[in-house]
Amino acid sequence: MTPNPHDFLDVDRDLGDEERAIRDTVRDYARTELLPHVAGWFESGSIPDPRAVARGLGALGLLGMHLDGYGCAGTNAVSYGLACRELEAVDSGLRSLVSVQGSLAMTAIHAFGSEEQKREWLPRMAAGEAIGCFGLTEPDSGSDPGSMRTRARREGSDWVLDGTKMWITNGSVADVAVVWAGTEDGIRGFLVPTDVPGFSANVIHGKISLRASITSELVLDGVRLPGDAALPLAEGIRAPLSCLSEARFGIVWGVAGAARSCFEAALDYARTRTQFGRPIGGFQLTQGKLADMLVDVNHANLTALRLGRLKDEGLLHHSHVSFGKLANVRAAQRVAATARSVHGANGITLEYPVMRHMVNLETVATYEGTEEIHALTLGRALTGHSAFR
User: Fold this and answer.
1) pTM of the model
2) pLDDT tens, 273-297?
3) Domain 132-235 in CATH: superfamily?
4) Does an H or E element contain 355, and which?
5) Given this model, what pLDDT does residue 51 score?
6) CATH of 239-383 among 3.50.50.60, 1.20.120.450, 1.20.140.10, 3.30.70.1520
7) Is residue 91 a contact partner of residue 142, using CB atoms and an 8 Å limit?
8) What is the pLDDT of residue 219?
9) EC number(s) on record (predicted)?
10) Could you report the per-residue pLDDT of 78-131, keeping only the tens digit for each?
11) What pLDDT, on a 0 to 100 scale, did the predictor assign at position 389?
12) Which among 88, 138, 217, 368 is annotated as catalytic?
């Protein structure tokens, strides 16, 4: 049987029936409801109605889909990964929305929140009726979140928060922000309703990447919260880092989708673009490029599926996730750049998805841990010595 160019190694053959159904449902929805609009959103640098997008994703069961209870779908890790892959095949900004909502904000509440906090927020967030964001990164604290300057101090039974968070997806449309702050007892997590006095979110403009996504600066100026706003089980830097590992798992799958989209666009273009009297796909150099992209796309899917199976078996280590993010983002960047070259001048336009994916991947390579951070994580796993400090 001739291999399928779109899944050359037949990786998806190893999916179960429910996993295939989720893959197909998300793919159809993303292509029908989101893809026709995403180039326009990217060009304008805005999503006209992000809440409608969130409700649509919630109705499909994609928000916090890997969590159990409280209105969440409770799927396995591979199913969640497949959803991320199909969303990012359309645009990284859409997968970011789902990752931040489900793997960061909702996971923090699910893992570290009180029963009351879970009941208050998770059902509405799962439905897309409430949007969350995750306030960890700061202007001077990115790869080293332990150096954050945001502080929470006790005043009677209340908490008072002061500080600034930066590069926060969903920040200006969120109903609740999961904010991490230093206290006299170490780093703690807090649920901050975005309508409280002293909280403001400013949209970051001028982005050249991830434009079909809302990115904001959060400012906390004497934000007063009741004592029960703290996540009771979130103590220390390991709490937010565990949430980041969940989000990174989604990235491992998501960028495989972006790579596939670029490869498929290049393959179609090479078959139809004629120069020197024949399709450019008939020239050796173009075929070499297509072969390189094919290998990267299939390697990325194999890596994602392997990590998904490990996660479902309870065997996934955070260094495995670092391996996946490092390898798959690199592969996706190579594929996007090569696909852009196959398209020639047409590749820089929004008529084709490759340049949009190419610049989006520059952001994906940076957030949730830079390439250097994941390389050092692997180095520590190999040698037993940390190079971070």
Assistant:
1) 0.96
2) 999 999 999 999 999 999 999 999 9
3) Butyryl-CoA Dehydrogenase, subunit A, domain 2 (2.40.110.10)
4) helix 354-364
5) 96
6) 1.20.140.10
7) no
8) 98
9) 1.3.8.6
10) 999 999 999 999 999 999 999 999 999 999 999 999 999 999 999 999 999 999
11) 73
12) 368
How do strand 132-135 and strand 274-275 relate by DSSP bridges? unpaired
Q: Determine contact, residues 186/236, Cβ cutoff 8 Å.
A: yes
Give me the architecture of the 11-126 domain, per CATH: Orthogonal Bundle (1.10)
For the chain, which ranges sit under pLDDT 50? none
CA distances to 46, 166, 361 from 210, in Å: 10, 15, 8
Q: Where are the domains of the chain?
A: 11-126, 132-235, 239-383
Three-state secondary-structure class, residue 279: strand
Q: 352: buried, middle or exposed (CB in 10 Å: 19+, 13-18, 0-12)?
A: buried
- 143 contacts: CB under 8 Å, gap ≥ 6: 369, 370, 372, 373
Alpha carbon separation from 344 to 273, 295, 297, 348, 355 (Å, rounded): 10, 21, 21, 8, 11
Concerning whether 264 is annotated as a catalytic residue, the answer is no
So what's the pLDDT on residue 142?
Answer: 85
Note the pLDDT of residue 339: 98
User: What does the block give as tokens for 105?
Assistant: 């904000």
Instruction: Work out whether the CA dihedral 52, 57, 59, 60 comes out positive or negative.
Output: positive
C-alpha 233/C-alpha 348 separation (Å) is 48
d(CA 276, CA 280): 8
DSSP code, position 7:
B
H or E element in which residue 305 lies:
helix 284-312
Identify the sign of the CA torsion 278, 283, 286, 288: positive
Residue 179, C-beta contacts closer than 8 angstroms, at least 6 positions apart: 135, 150, 161, 165, 189, 190, 191, 192, 218, 220
pLDDT for the residue 157? 95
CB 319 within 8 A of CB 30: no
Side chain identity at residue 361, one-letter code: L
CB–CB of 378/319 below 8 Å? yes
Per-residue model confidence (pLDDT) at position 144? 86
Q: What letter represents residue 152's amino acid?
A: A
